[in-house]
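Quick one:
INPUT:
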């Protein structure tokens, strides 16, 4: 596993690993134990996981005396404060804030354009990367010495923050700025699954040829973007990654802050690689409720399922959900044991297959023209075959077989960029 890649000037900073416990000889007094020696193993407790942002001692020297631009959102936290607020208190000169989808403070709904603004709390200019442009301009970066990227990802291709990372890297490369990445754990880091994105279906929810669940942290993905020559014009961005301490990909990690308005529970985050596929179907997947991505259904499934819910307009989450104010019938996955996903290490396709089979409106199931709230299944899955495979009644095993050899090739390529076991 390469920690340093010759094509990019990348610095990786981490805490040292814990040593193995050493036995300690000790005299023990007590009933029946006089003058006897016992071997007592003095155990070290496991070291606590620390995000890159929390290890300020490792990167404050890199920011000292510099004009800093920060790509952040509500997940950018150090303890109970945003990293912006924390670093300001530590004397860092933050020149500008750059916000992705949903904005810096997370007040905008999914897919809603965010305008440039001034952050009311700090008075710092906030540039939107989900508005007039998705890439920082030369003018945006003119008074910036170093950029910082500190955003929590959830490990899937159609979650747009990794696209923001790519655009920021391209801008930094073009304008000769260093990008400091404060890495964070991937809550779905154990999962590498799905078809490789076909370039024909490249979109705002998928740019690069990676599977649905990519199994990388943001820092690792940045190395992949550089190493595979995926940045525009094959430029290389000068990056420095502050690694998570005491982290591995199989580790269970509960996010301290919801990563976006509709991923508002840990259950939703863990189901998201599977249930986000319902965005490409004529089903409501919990938008317009407090349980997005954990429930799914439609009015036309009445009599097929007992569970029901009614989507309503919720400001900041979903103002016009599919089947608004209509009773929907379907699946309740709020108590589904997500350990089953971890055991299988696979995206769950059975839920979508069963709902298609139960639907009396099969001709409408993937028809994205029926509602602006629907996405296109090909863009979500990344494959032009999936729709027809479901219609033809292909088994989950047959569908998965069609993802090869691309998925296995990706898994091999991925190993070059890993920073963690």
């Amino acid at each position: 596993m390469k920690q340093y890649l010759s094509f990019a000037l990348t610095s990786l900073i981490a805490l040292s690993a814990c040593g193995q416990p050493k036995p300690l000889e000790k005299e023990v007094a007590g009933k029946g134990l006089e003058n006897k020696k016992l071997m007592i193993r003095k155990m070290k407790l496991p070291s606590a996981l620390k995000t890159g942002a929390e290890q300020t001692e490792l990167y404050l020297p890199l920011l000292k005396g510099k004009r800093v631009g920060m790509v952040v959102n509500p997940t950018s936290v150090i303890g109970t404060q945003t990293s912006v607020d924390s670093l300001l208190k530590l004397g860092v000169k933050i020149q500008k804030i750059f916000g992705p989808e949903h904005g810096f403070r997370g007040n905008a709904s999914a897919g809603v354009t965010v305008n440039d603004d001034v952050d009311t709390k700090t008075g710092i200019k906030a540039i939107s990367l989900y508005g007039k442009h998705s890439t920082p301009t030369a003018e945006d970066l003119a008074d910036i010495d170093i950029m910082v990227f500190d955003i929590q990802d959830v490990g899937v291709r159609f979650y747009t923050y990794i696209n923001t990372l790519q655009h920021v890297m391209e801008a930094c490369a073009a304008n000769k700025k260093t990008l400091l990445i404060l890495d964070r754990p991937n809550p779905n880091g154990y999962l590498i699954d799905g078809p490789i994105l076909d370039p024909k279906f490249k979109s705002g929810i998928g740019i690069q040829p990676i599977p649905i669940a990519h199994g990388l942290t943001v820092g690792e993905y940045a190395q992949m973007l550089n190493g595979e020559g995926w940045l525009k014009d094959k430029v290389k961005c000068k990056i420095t990654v502050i690694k998570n301490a005491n982290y591995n990909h199989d580790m269970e990690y509960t996010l301290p802050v919801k990563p976006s308005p509709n991923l508002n529970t840990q259950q939703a985050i863990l189901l998201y690689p599977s249930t986000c596929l319902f965005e490409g179907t004529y089903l409501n997947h919990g938008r317009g409720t407090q349980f997005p991505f954990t429930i799914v259904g439609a009015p036309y499934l009445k009599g097929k399922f007992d569970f029901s819910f009614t989507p309503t307009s919720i400001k900041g989450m979903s103002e016009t959900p599919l089947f608004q104010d209509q009773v929907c019938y379907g699946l309740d996955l709020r108590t589904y044991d997500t350990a089953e996903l971890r055991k299988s290490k696979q995206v769950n396709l059975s839920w979508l297959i069963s709902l298609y089979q139960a639907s009396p409106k099969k001709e409408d199931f993937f028809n994205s023209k029926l509602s602006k709230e629907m996405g296109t299944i090909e863009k979500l899955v990344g494959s032009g075959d999936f729709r027809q495979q479901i219609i033809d009644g292909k088994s989950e095993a047959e569908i998965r077989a069609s993802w090869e050899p691309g998925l296995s090739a990706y898994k091999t390529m991925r190993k070059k960029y890993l920073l963690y076991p």
